[in-house]
Write a structure and sequence with these properties.
It contains twelve helices and 21 strands. By secondary structure, the protein is an alpha/beta fold. The longest helix is centred in the middle third of the chain and has 19 residues, at about 210-225. InterPro entries: GH, GH30_C, Glyco_hydro_30, Glyco_hydro_30_TIM-barrel.
């Protein structure tokens, strides 16, 4: 078993021995794994190489730069297999830019990426040549938008694409894929738009389901398929919630209306989801009052989407601990563990973090002050005081990435305890059982596979990965377990999502 915890033990390995059992008893806490009950196949884990992240890496000393890239992509590191790029500038960029300032094809150029992103990307590709890349736009050139502004401002402003600009924007996005291909960068997934129902104060654009379907089926889809048939389109790329912003659609409504359009399935193969709480969620309001981040636990919306669109992939495309830098703190690590395990239990096939690296102020940014945490920070980059900080969140993501390499398969598991868990079948037939103990007490449970039981001790506030050998015996009969209704599950998380912000607002401990 490999453990990382709040006490500062990271990547700690422990040998756990098993014993033969003839039955599973409800009197003992257990998690039973069923490797033969296969579910979704994973595409892998990764993060985002934003201009901000690339600028910090570029500014760092060569030794620090090598440490960062090895930590993420090296054989002894996280072994990230996925990478997200921004098409043009985003909120986490050091300057605003697009690739075509004027409405003429000849002006298209990736030159802005050459400042920070492209040099680091080439270094990553040397270390991990098979990394799968997705790219997402935050906003097109301003002359393509109704508002003639790249920033979103607020929901009262029309932040949509001009209907007359649809052909030009399709050309723009395809030219991006063209230009990256000429540089040896293959774009596997092209997101239609980051957060397409958010009018953010930084680069943003909104899409109605009808406009998105028209754009994809008549313009972007055919052009992309003709030139890059291996590149598929992702939609939504936003929160799991149905409560986004005033007058905006939520996840269920938008996706239902979009997929009702004939023809979209031949071009679109996935939806992206983020972990943030939406603006109209009560958790977000409490979080804003307390100065603490809030995140989305509407995992059942993922089940609903999967039932309606079983052939579409669900990819978690962005997660970041907001409202501060969070250096060396456990809270972001715990949230990653919670979100990842529950995503995997609700059909999610891949997981991408946000910025790979940020500086000591949770930036840099150019459009708005929005300090965020990152798994790795570099303080005073490029100076004699330079310091590399690897936060606990990194070790959670590292463990998950190593256990969820492309082709690994989610398998069923069950428990008679309130314990976040998920199981992943490995290429060699073994199974990884991920267990998170979010309590301040030691918890002991039996991990059961076939006729073998392994007694595991979960330290307080810990994320654990248990390697179970290949199953050689039939599953034992599971004792009756009363499954908690969804509404009560959310109520049981009341302390984390609702009371924690209040506690912190009052200066109390969690």
């Amino acid at each position: 078993m490999t453990t990382t915890n709040q006490a500062g033990q990271h990547d700690q390995r422990h040998l756990v021995t098993g014993k033969h059992i003839d039955h599973v008893s409800n009197g003992t806490g257990f998690v039973q794994v069923f490797p033969n009950r296969r579910r979704q196949t994973f595409t892998g884990v990764g993060g985002a190489l934003t201009d901000s992240a690339a600028s910090v890496i570029q500014k760092s000393r060569p030794q620090t730069r090598r440490q960062i890239l090895t930590a993420y992509f090296g054989a002894q590191g996280a072994r990230y297999t996925n990478l997200r790029l921004t098409i043009g500038s985003a909120d986490f960029s050091t300057f605003g830019y697009t690739y075509a300032k004027q409405a003429t094809p000849a002006t298209f150029s990736l030159k802005p990426d050459d400042v920070h992103v492209s040099p680091v990307l080439q270094q990553i590709l040397k270390q991990a040549p098979n990394v799968q890349i997705m790219a997402a736009p935050w906003a097109p050139p301003k002359w393509m938008k109704v508002s003639h502004r790249r920033d979103g401002q607020n929901f009262l402003v029309n932040n949509a694409l001009k209907r007359s600009a649809m052909p030009a924007y399709a050309d723009y996005l395809v030219k991006y894929v063209d230009a990256q291909q000429r540089r040896g960068v293959a774009i596997k997934t092209l997101s239609l738009q980051n957060e397409l129902q958010a009018s953010s104060p930084w680069e943003a654009m909104t899409w109605t389901p009808d406009a998105a379907a028209t754009f994809i089926t008549h313009y972007l889809g055919p052009k992309l398929k003709a030139r890059h048939p291996q590149t598929k389109i992702m939609v939504w790329d936003y929160v799991k919630s149905d409560a986004t912003q005033p007058i905006m659609m939520g996840f269920n409504q938008w996706t239902q209306k979009f997929y009702a359009h004939r023809g979209v399935h031949q071009y679109v193969d996935s939806v992206g989801v983020h972990w943030y709480a939406a603006s109209l969620n009560a958790q977000m309001s409490l979080g804003n009052l307390s100065g603490q981040p809030a995140w989305d636990d509407n995992f059942n919306n993922l089940d609903r989407f999967h039932r309606q669109q079983p052939l579409q992939q669900i990819i978690a495309t962005e997660a970041a601990q907001e409202k501060g830098v969070w250096l060396n703190q456990w809270t972001p690590a715990a949230r990653y563990g919670y979100d990842i395990i529950n995503d995997f239990e609700h059909h999610v096939q891949g997981y991408l973090d946000w910025n790979l690296v940020l500086n000591g102020q949770g930036g840099p940014t150019h459009a708005a002050v929005n300090p965020c945490g990152a798994p790795i920070n570099v303080l005073h980059a490029g100076t004699s005081k330079e310091q590399l900080v690897i936060n606990p969140a990194y070790y959670v993501l590292k463990r998950v990435s190593r256990d969820v390499q492309p082709g690994a398969v989610s398998v069923a598991s069950t428990t008679n305890r309130q314990l976040d868990h998920t199981a992943i079948l490995q290429h060699d037939g073994s199974t990884r059982l991920l267990l998170e103990n979010r309590s301040s007490q030691v918890r002991t449970v039996q991990a059961v596979i076939g006729h073998r039981a392994y007694k595991v001790r979960l330290t307080p506030h810990s994320f654990n990965s248990l390697r179970l050998p290949k199953q050689t015996a039939k599953n034992l009969k599971t004792p009756p377990i009363t499954h908690t209704p969804t509404s009560l599950k959310r109520l049981s998380r009341f302390d984390n999502h609702w009371l924690t912000p209040i506690y912190r607002f009052l200066g109390l401990q969690d």
